[in-house]
From TrEMBL:
It comes from the Bacteria. GO terms for cellular component: extracellular region. It comes from Sanguibacter keddieii (strain ATCC 51767 / DSM 10542 / NCFB 3025 / ST-74). This is Alpha-glucuronidase. Its EC number is 3.2.1.139. Keywords: Glycosidase, Hydrolase. The lineage of its organism: Bacteria, Bacillati, Actinomycetota, Actinomycetes, Micrococcales.
Length: 704
């Protein structure tokens, strides 16, 4: 079990495994991932002071816990095991497993059956997550007798592709540093231009990711610098070493590649996707990668966006570009994650028709049906850029013939940079569970999983992708509570129908399982609702941004982006605020959705309050559905947001002595900064809107 001295165990502390110590588990099967399961089982056994090696099936007592590959169960297996095999109706897929649990007079026996070692590993972590109850141990005080029962449950991941993208640079970037938008110290992989010599923490990380559900990791930043581009060729050894570290936990590695690689690495005169020499270069390069890393996952590409090269240079479109790479990877079962984050960041701010929210839609909607089967279009959840509140990207609803993946930002770039507590899962579950075509239509997760009837038969969904929030920090994520976001992402990628609250309970239970109730309840309460608090004291009603450009998007600067070319505006003046994205008078963006949703957003009378300023420009006196005016809403929420942070600080102070001192210290320090920053947000926002509007606070509070 990879553990690094001094590093926080996150959601896999030994306390979370101890209930499995007494299970005396039997593991049947062969292969590298089955060996990983054996190591896990042996480690758990040591926690109870038991055997360190798993024993063979059968024996003196009945086996309480068996983890077996279906084809490794011998014909003369003990009856309990044979019976469990007979109960499996359909052999689980690659990563799935079946759990058979029987409770009888002799106690509870659990049999986990899988087709592959990968499935068995997920079965193991499923047992870890369920805690003591898994073996029929009832909570203290529960005196009800054990009911005889038999339960058979099949588990499969909703998405085959559950990717975590690292925006890590090999060489330290002069502005972005070692990890672009990283708030957790250095990179786990690279240190100042080279691969870290000791990848012990990467192995530990792989274990955590596998336990959450993630199965793919992209190893470098989507903005690909020269040294990063070379991972594909001259520095392929780095990729080999990282793949070796991830492999025992079933995680495949991917690379972000530069579209200009044939020029910058191959010395060709062009990277034009229709040029046969360019195609041959990519095919050879991909073949060399697969020769070194046979289970390599594929490429991630940010093209024609924020300065990255792309097919537009050669007058080609994004289907030409993506398919060319897909054909190089196809023979090796690789995929291209092609990002839809394409917009012009040099737009003319006076021209409202160049609405940045429209850009991805306008580039990609016409290309539906043209992408090869191993291209996944990776679409940011919202149409602009990972803000605390955005509507769903309409791209997700207009590509029925394309494999669509939704991309979320686990790293808290715009949500407090891991200084502020912001549990992001409610944003993701709301979006994944939305039914954009109406209550009877498919949910977003049916699109990403491929369960929705896609117009093109036989293609599967694109899954989920996310930007990682980890680094060298002892707590992995800077703010210890930001671990919950990473955990939640993995769990949702596995099962997007889970609720944010249920995942939070799981995370608290695993991470703080042996802590006093009071501490666990407080941690839970601080996280639950924390995103609402953050939204209250930052940019109002879906208008977005207002973050400081000079402080790398941390803290407020209401007009920081207002007169720049990035396309993220609020259009506040003395009369009103908000972006008119209606079809009647604005950019027409509201009309890009399926009809019901489009109508809801188009009309002021039906547009939800929380997105009002995303879709409409309104006077400060406009009355919200909540009954209050826009300007009064801004004042009220900003005062309330700070008050709620004050309550969080007090709540934490009460329980901090019950926590590990290092963790308590870190959380306390971050909460103090959150409070300082929330006050700054409140005062800047309230002052700004008071001066623009001239409308005083209806409750007479002092505005600084
Ligand atoms: C923006 C980040 C920038 C990323 C970009 C992206 O500020 O660092 O490169 O997203 O997703 O939000 O490519």
């Amino acid at each position: 079990i990879p553990q690094t001295e001094g590093t926080h165990p996150a959601w896999l502390p030994d306390a979370a495994l101890v209930h499995l110590a007494a299970a005396d588990a039997v593991v049947l099967g062969d292969g590298p991932l089955v060996d990983t399961v054996r190591t896990e089982v042996a480690h758990a056994a040591t926690l109870g002071g038991g055997e360190t090696a798993p024993r063979p099936a059968g024996g003196a007592s009945p086996d309480r816990l068996v983890l077996a590959l279906l084809d490794a169960v011998p014909d003369d297996a003990p009856e309990q095991l044979r019976e469990a095999v007979d109960l499996v109706q359909r052999a689980p897929g690659d990563e799935g497993f079946v759990e058979v649990r029987r409770t009888g007079a002799a106690g509870t026996t659990v049999t986990m059956l899988a087709t592959t070692g990968h499935g068995l590993l997920h079965a193991w972590f499923h047992l870890v997550r369920q805690g003591a109850a898994v073996l029929g141990v009832r909570p203290e005080g529960d005196r009800s007798g054990a009911q005889a029962s038999l339960r058979v449950e099949a588990h499969e991941p909703a998405h085959a592709l559950r990717v975590l993208d690292h925006w890590d640079n090999v060489s330290v970037h002069p502005v972005m540093g070692q990890v672009e938008r990283g708030y957790s110290g250095g990179s786990l992989f690279y240190d100042d231009g080279a691969l870290r010599p000791d990848l012990g923490r990467v192995r530990q990380y792989a274990r955590l990711l596998a336990a959450s559900g993630v199965n793919r990791v992209a190893l470098n930043n989507v903005n690909v610098g020269r040294r990063e581009a070379q991972l594909l060729t001259t520095h392929l050894d780095d990729v080999v070493a990282l793949a070796d570290a991830f492999r025992p936990y079933g995680i495949r590695v991917h690379l972000s590649v530069s579209f200009a690689s044939p020029v910058v690495l191959g010395g060709l005169g062009t990277a034009d996707p229709v040029d046969p020499e360019v195609q041959a270069w990519w095919a050879q390069t991909a073949a060399a990668v697969y020769a070194a890393v046979p289970d390599f996952g594929g490429f991630v590409v940010k093209a024609d966006s924020e300065g990255q090269p792309g097919p537009f240079t050669y007058g080609r479109d994004h289907a030409d570009g993506a398919n060319m790479l897909a054909r190089a990877l196809g023979p090796h079962d690789g995929v291209v994650h092609w990002r839809a984050f394409v917009y012009d960041h040099h737009q003319d701010w006076r021209d409202r028709s160049t609405d940045r929210a429209r850009a991805a839609h306008d580039h990609f909607a016409p290309l539906d049906g043209r992408f090869d089967e191993n291209v996944v279009l990776q679409v940011k959840l919202g149409p602009v850029d990972f803000q605390v509140r955005e509507p769903l990207s309409p791209v997700i609803t207009v590509m029925p013939q394309t494999r669509v993946a939704v991309e979320v930002q686990v790293t808290q770039e715009y949500t407090g940079q891991q200084q502020h507590v912001a549990y992001l899962a409610p944003q993701w579950t709301d979006a994944m569970q939305t039914r954009p075509w109406g209550d009877d239509g498919p949910a977003v997760h049916d699109v990403t999983s491929g369960r929705a009837t896609l117009a093109r038969r036989g293609i599967t969904g694109g899954g989920l992708a996310a930007v990682s929030n980890v680094g060298q920090d002892v707590f992995w994520t800077g703010h210890p509570f930001a671990q919950a976001n990473l955990y939640a992402y993995g769990r949702l990628a596995w099962d997007p129908t889970l609720t944010a609250e249920a995942i939070l309970d799981e995370w608290v239970g695993l991470t703080f399982g042996d802590a006093p109730d009071e501490l666990r309840t407080t941690v839970r309460d601080l996280l639950s609702g924390s995103l609402d608090v953050y939204e209250q004291y930052t940019a109002p009603l879906g208008v977005g941004f207002m973050v400081s450009p000079t402080r790398q998007h941390y803290g407020p600067d209401v007009d920081g982006y207002e007169y720049t070319a990035w396309g993220t505006y609020h259009f506040a003046d003395r009369d009103g605020v908000g972006v008119d994205r209606s079809c009647a008078t604005g950019t027409g963006y509201a009309g890009l959705y399926p009809p019901g949703l489009a109508a809801t957003y188009e009309s002021l009378s039906t547009c939800p309050d929380e997105l009002l300023l995303f879709f409409h420009h309104v006077p400060y006196s406009h009355r919200l559905h909540s009954g209050t005016t826009v300007v009064q809403h801004i004042y009220d929420t900003h005062f309330a947001g700070v008050e709620r942070v004050e309550e969080m600080v007090t709540a934490w102070e009460k329980v901090a002595p019950l926590a590990d001192p290092a963790l308590a210290g870190r959380v306390g320090e971050r909460l103090a900064e959150q409070l300082r920053s929330a006050v700054e947000w409140r005062d800047q926002l309230n002052t700004y809107f008071f001066r623009k509007s001239g409308v005083p606070d209806g409750r007479g509070r002092r505005i600084y």
